[in-house]
């Protein structure tokens, strides 16, 4: 994770930045991280290919990818490198971001007892005596979804979106943006802009997310990325609502959070 947030000269000086990265040791550290991840993913794949492995009742994502690789029924041939790349997206793009969102969500609920009370009441009213929040319940929990979105607004898992690169020449606010220019979108600054959000520095789910629009949150983006955002809300939300909405009996703010 330190590498993800570190300075990379190549990103800012594409033609000669790699020289700076070599002298600063960034290239060596990046190569070390790459081999560590590659060895880990290979180990996981080998474990799934082990003939003595006990077959689970339901396939996991790696089983599915290996099966698709063996079938080769699609237009694109799936290789081990493709499987590793998909695993990289899942682990780096899903695990850490979900954990960050859950921690900040619980923190904000602890700091805002009224919001926590409304969230708990909504979840308990739908879940009843089942004892567990299921994925099918998430769509019915309108206020809870507002809480998750407000958490993503105030505490986006990453300050910047994944870097984009312009394809054609364009003008933005009078500035010439040339092809191959790398663009960084600061979603943290946008989400704290009082011009677009009510009480931008306060945790107020009902004020900012009464409308149902996928464009309100750039942290989830839209289009194809909106699917990933929806999955994040569902998977993260199921655990989140279990921990703090239904099971938790916390009614006061811990002293260290005051």
From TrEMBL:
Source organism superkingdom: Eukaryota
The protein's name in its UniProt record: Cytochrome p450
Localization of this protein: Membrane
Major localization listed first in the record, in broad terms: membrane
Molecular function (Gene Ontology), one example: monooxygenase activity
Biological processes, Gene Ontology terms: secondary metabolite biosynthetic process
Topological type in the membrane: Single-pass membrane protein
SUPFAM superfamilies linked to this entry: Cytochrome P450 (SSF48264)
Origin species: Thalictrum thalictroides
